[in-house]
Write a structure and sequence with these properties.
The complex is a heterodimer of chains A (about 260) and B (about 300).
Chain A lengths: L2 H15 L4 H29 L2 H5 L3 H31 L1 H8 L3 H37 L12 H26 L2 H22 L2 H10 L1 H5 L14 H25 L3
Helix pairs in contact in A: 1-6, 2-4, 2-6, 4-5, 4-6, 4-7, 4-8, 6-7, 7-8, 7-11, 8-9
Chain B lengths: L1 E10 L2 E11 L3 E6 L6 H8 L7 E6 L14 E4 L11 H11 L4 H10 L15 H13 L5 E5 L7 H16 L3 E6 L2 H7 L2 E6 L2 E7 H8 E7 L2 H10 L3 E4 L5 E4 L3 H11 L3 E8 L1 H9 L11
Parallel strand pairs in B: 3-7, 3-8, 5-6, 6-7
Antiparallel strand pairs in B: 1-2, 1-4, 8-9, 10-12, 10-13, 11-12
The chains are: A mainly alpha (about 260), B alpha/beta (about 300).
Protein name (chain A): ABC transporter permease
Keywords (chain A): Membrane, Transmembrane, Transmembrane helix
Protein name (chain B): ABC transporter ATP-binding protein
Chain lengths: ~260, ~300
Amino acid sequence: MSVAFADTVRSEWTKFRTIPSNIPTMLTAVALMVFPGALTANGASENYQAASEATRAVFDPTYISMYGGFLFAQITVGALGVLVVTHEYATGLIRTSTTVVPRRGRLLGAKVATFALIALLMGWVSSFGSFFLGQAVLGSGGAPTASLGEPGVLRAVVGMGLLWALVGLSGVALGSLLRATMSATTVLVAVNFIIPIIGPRLLPDGVGAWVQTYWPIQAGLQITTTVQNAERMLPWPGFGVMAAFTAVLLIAAFALFRSRDA
Amino acid sequence: MIEITDLTKRYGNKTAVDGLSFNVHPGRVTGFLGPNGAGKSTTMRAILGLDRPHAGSVTVNGRAYVGLPRPMREVGALLDARAVHPRRTARNHLLCIAQTNGIPAKRVDEVLQVVGLESVARKRAGGFSLGMGQRLGIAVALLGDPKVLLFDEPVNGLDPEGIKWIRELMRGLAAEGRTVLVSSHLMSEMAQTADHLIVIGKGKLIADIGISEFIRQGSNVLVRADDQERLAAKLTEAGGTVLPGADGALIVTGLEARQVGKAALDAEVVLTELTPQRSLEQAYMDLTRDSIEFQASAA
């Protein structure tokens, strides 16, 4: 990492931590992940008691402990990613930033690196937090539990943190492409929440199944499972789809950021 | 030293800057004047690499701004003082900008002192008055202790004390041998601050002139005499232009007061009044009359 890039990353970290609401919002995202996750786990352990043998066979305590909370937390993480860029357009600070760092790629690169690291660390705090709390809740409810030593479990919990980083970066990319908080957040919520979560209930069956399997965030969530559903993608290929989607958004963001007047 | 050569910038079909060339030299305050929409801000943005020109080149100390490894150490700019996150403190605002160029926090505290904001350094910038915001914007420009400074409309909305402070600051920076380019659409402001003027209109250069030369060109002399016709003929002969003024007075341009007095002596007329007038505002208006984009018409 060049000195100039390291300086720009340091500046981006200062920018992030000196907006008073950012760190509390990040901690809220962690809480949104861990506590609704525990509620979901509690509901799942009750359902487990009444479930059929077939349902019990695909019970995935790792996934259940994290998925419910992630639905809420990912909106906050993505929106924070959007704001990291759009607050500079809203205040006009972007002109100062591009003046003092005329290399546009370096400036956006530093934003991406800084927020990726923040989202990744907070993602791991959340994924491990919701995993351990979820297992405790499941165990006390009489449902099976998982431990990190079992096959695929550590990959799933670590992968959840990686997914946080990707969702955050899709927010950064959308913020940079659209340059306005409201439109970027709307697109983000549509892409990562409404289409994949609500879409399958509204769309024709065939399209709905396709969305559930291949839509980036749905494919990416496969990395957080330890029981493979035959109709869905495998963990790493699924994660690869989400990573590729995020990469495409970022490449477009870099290309436009370089060519547009600030 | 800023060198601008054949700069052209269009936005859509509209040409904002049209083949503009001029140099800005160190050691003096150069006023950058023109009516609103003349292309001043576009030119400043092009100097800083914020807008890409369609043609021409801009260099700062012989290099393109975008190629400077530590741009804040060479060029400081005040573009829009309100471009501050309202909930960030003044010190943190300066700190995150300073860090991009490896400027230490110690320098942040220094510039806060220079602009007189040290007592509100840890207050949120959103609560600042216009004048305090302007000082914060100037602090950003000074962070890297640069040899070249650009100020876009720095006195807009300031109180007289703030205007005086900025004026003295700019003159001080120029006296230290720095290159100072300051834009304004007010001639009266420039007359008190600038040593040199660059006047543009509709994206083209109108004048590149020393302030004393501009004042000399812009001045006129009001005279009254017992025989106005004879005096007028003599003044015209001496190279002046004579126009009728109020209450039968003559307005002479192109001659200094001493030359008007000499003409009166030669014409053997008795002067009852001789008043040198300096209407810079008028001279500026004359200069840019043809290049004002939105002009109110007489009803």
